[in-house]
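quick one before i forget lol
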Amino acid sequence: MAMKIRLARGGGKKRPFYSIVAADSRMPRDGRFIEKLGTYNPLLPKGSEDRVIIDVEKAKAWIAKGAQPTDRVQRMLETAGVIAKKVRANLKKGEPGEAAKKRVEEKAAKAAAPVDEAPAEVAAEETVAE
């Protein structure tokens, strides 16, 4: 039986509220769980202490039993000091997407083209005026 520590969604439409639960990974997201470990309310401001409430002792016990936290819950547990912070290298963080790269290339081509054409046009006009 693969155990997970994960979020179970509650609340109404456009008003999310999550319970942090220990559940069998085969159960539905909002379905049957074994134990509730805490709550997460994303509508509260980031600095609020009521935003994430975790029973640290229960979480440690489940991790000792082999329960795997999901990515989001793992970050919450790291913040709470239950598990050691994992070093993450987001290599693509500052890199623009393909569409943005194309726009930059087109803009550079456009900027370069009129500069080259303008002196030729001015020279042609000068010869006509003479």
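fyi The radius of gyration is 28 Å.
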